[in-house]
Amino acid sequence: MNQSNQEMFRQLGISEEVYKMGERVCESLKERFEKIDRTAEYNQLKIVKAMQDNKVGEACLLGTTGYGYNDLGRDTLEAVYSSVFHTEDALVRPQITCGTHALALALMSNLRPGDELLSPVGKPYDTLEEVIGIRPSKGSLAEYGVSYRQVDLLPDGGFDYENIEKAINEKTHLVTIQRSKGYQTRPTLSVERIGELIAFIKKVKPDVLCMVDNCYGEFVETIEPSDVGADMVVGSLIKNPGGGLAPIGGYIAGRKECVENAAYRLTSPGLGKEVGASLGILTQFYQGLFLSPTVTAAALKGAIFAANLYEKFGYSVLPDSTEERFDIIQAITFGKPEGIIAFCQGIQAAAPVDSYVTPEPWDMPGYDAKVIMAAGAFVSGSSIELSADGPIKPPYSVYFQGGLTWPHAKLGILKTVQFMADRGLIDQKSIH
Ligand SMILES: *Cc1c(COP(=O)(O)O)cnc(C)c1O
Questions:
Q1: Same domain for 102 and 82?
Q2: 368 pLDDT exceeds 80?
Q3: Quick one: angle between helices 282-312 and 406-422, nearest 10?
């Protein structure tokens, strides 16, 4: 064991017992971490090749102002995304404000009044309920005459093919598939399983569009949903593909017609992709994408490390300590509010920014229980940075994700263990 590393952890408040337990768990994870590094290597090369093939040059890093006509850097970046995701086209813009916006844009621009939207994987991410109109909302798809159908996953997490086939009708125009479990307890879908689902849907109705909500899934595997038949993949740049550097933005990569529709909706009919100044943001978009594979790998290692530690303490973890990963989210269930609070305060205390503030549960608009959030991030709200949150209600689960570097994710998790131990929430005897 490296004495001086231990000393640095000690200076950051980690006791000898907690440190040593962390080292032993890391030792046991070597093989899994190597596999994650191999995936990162593949994706790193894929991105470098895309940048070279599309002749990214110094001039691409300069932005435009005003209308943004002939924005070489913006147009080249979109070509790079198309190469990475193996799609015909892509829209990658700072004017797409977040993941929800990117998803809403993809849906609203590719559905018309009278069309029906189908989710064959159960309830979509919370914020999409208002986009679709599952919860009545101003400007929802429902207000524009787009209907919605949902088929839940089977109790074992499988696809309910029988009812999916029944749900597809002459109005069904677009199918939305969420890759990550988000903040639900269903399993995250592997790209391979998404491919099987898309193949089934296209067999039932070949001209239906399949869109994948790719949030939290980018570069976790060596293939993306667009490699297995998705017509559009959609995500946020303050998650995986922004690599922690993008301060805003979203992307839609997919079939030319789908992306064009989205561009005409984002800007204006007649203008489409031709306008939209990139301002001074392109270096962060390029460099963030470049770093994304290793940043995603760091976040994955942190999630697996946390699962292995907390399973040893007797808490239930999802995914569990040995499961293969298809997104970067880790859930830990404490069964009592003190657990969530100590965990979030530990994450905050490890942050590079705002480490000295103490997060407390508060009444957040739109939630039916108090929520606690830890986010000492360079980019506000960024969840590719080390972050955690949880609603203060049974079963008292915390959702944790991110970490721009593995050493920082490791510190954050050890800090949560230390806080839990100091408050008697972890049996001292289990720290060994
Ligand atoms: C984060 C996320 C979204 C929404 O993204 P925001 O940037 O928070 O609006 C949608 N779907 C999934 C699965 C997500 O993880």
A1: yes
A2: no
A3: 40
pTM: 0.96
Two tokens at 138? 């101003």
The CATH number of whichever domain residue 250 belongs to comes to 3.40.640.10
Whole-angstrom distance, CA of residue 252 vs CA of residue 373: 28
Joined together, the tokens standing for residue 372 give: 């606690």
Domain tally, the chain: 2
Q: 63-77, 149-163, 206-220, 354-368 — which is least confidently predicted?
A: 354-368
DSSP strand E in 214-294: where?
Answer: 232-236, 250-254
Q: What is the pLDDT of residue 428?
A: 83
Pocket of ligand 1 from Cβ distances under 6 Å: 98-100, 103, 125, 127, 178, 180, 182, 213, 215-216, 236
Question: Residue 172 pairs with which residues in a beta bridge?
Answer: 116
Span from the CA of 329 to the centroid of ligand 1 (angstroms): 12
Contact status, residue 399 vs residue 183, Cβ threshold 8 Å: yes
Contact 332, 315 (CB under 8 A): yes
d(CA 414, CA 137): 42
User: Containing domain of residue 189, as a range?
Assistant: 46-289
Asked whether residue 213 falls in the same domain as residue 313, the answer is no
Look up residue 110 and give its amino acid.
Answer: N
**Which ligand 1 atom is at minimum distance from the Cα of 127?**
4
Same domain, 127 and 263: yes
Share of the chain above pLDDT 70, in %: 99
pLDDT digits (tens, 9 = 90+) for 254-311: 999 999 999 999 999 999 999 999 999 999 999 999 999 999 999 999 999 999 999 9
